[in-house]
Amino acid sequence: MFEDLTFPLRQKMTVIPSGFRCYMLKILNNNYKGMDQLPCRNVIMVDSPEGWGVTRFPDEEPDHVDLYIVNSGRICYISEEKELTAGSGQSLLIPSWIPRKLFTTEAGNHLYIRVEMPKKHYGFKQAVCRKSINSEALNFFTRSMLMENKNSTDELIYRQYLAECLAIAIRREIFSTSGAGSEDNAQKLLHTLQNADSSMLTVQNAAKLAGMSVSALRAFCLENFNKSPGKLIEEMLMARARGMLSYSKMSIDEIAGELGYADRFVFSKAFTRNHKISPAAFRKLQW
Q1: With 0-12 CB in 10 A as exposed, 13-18 as middle and 19+ as buried, what is 271?
Q2: Which end of the chain is more exposed for a tag (fewer CB within 10 A), N or C?
Q3: Is the pTM of this model over 0.85?
């Protein structure tokens, strides 16, 4: 049926065969930490027989990317420019701004995530099929969160842990171009920032040191550290602050200046926000 459709597509179509099942995990409606900055709202697990399919047009919805992670079975993508088939352990990233048809050629299970970000943040213009770097992790965390043990006293803590792990896996799947070298690049970035002067530790300067744009640095940090560049830099400054307060005789004004803060009040506010204790009180505990 879908194989016979020709371009340009003239009709929107959705075919849902008997036996099709989907299970939606709402990740932004449960106040899980680490999920609020994800560019998606839901993760949908799908059990699909052969024969499911859709056709879509660019003008139907705001720009986004459809991410399909295939656990079993096969999904076929066709546009005017290319044809792709994803099997077990592979992922499809499909831009919404391209007329397309998508259908299963073999029954199986997959995850669907709609990624909502401006077009400029994606590193591709056409659909991409690649090896998934997180398929097993995404499958495990999603299935675990879809199940709920209301009799467990640690259920909320356990689900928060699952949510944080799922957020990391989703970011890595969305932003990774190949999966190769990501950990090495993350270590290089940490080394660069750890050896930079405190006055250089701003997001703009960090992007220059890393050879990235600010938006690319943000995507890289979210993927590899599960935090924004600003938060990563602040944690480094706080580590230096703790060392100075514990092992030096510098005044709080001097420490604030050394770390690049405008004055002791701005520094004290940042330190208290991170440690729930003022710099002066922290120093007294060390001495």
Answers
A1: buried
A2: C
A3: no
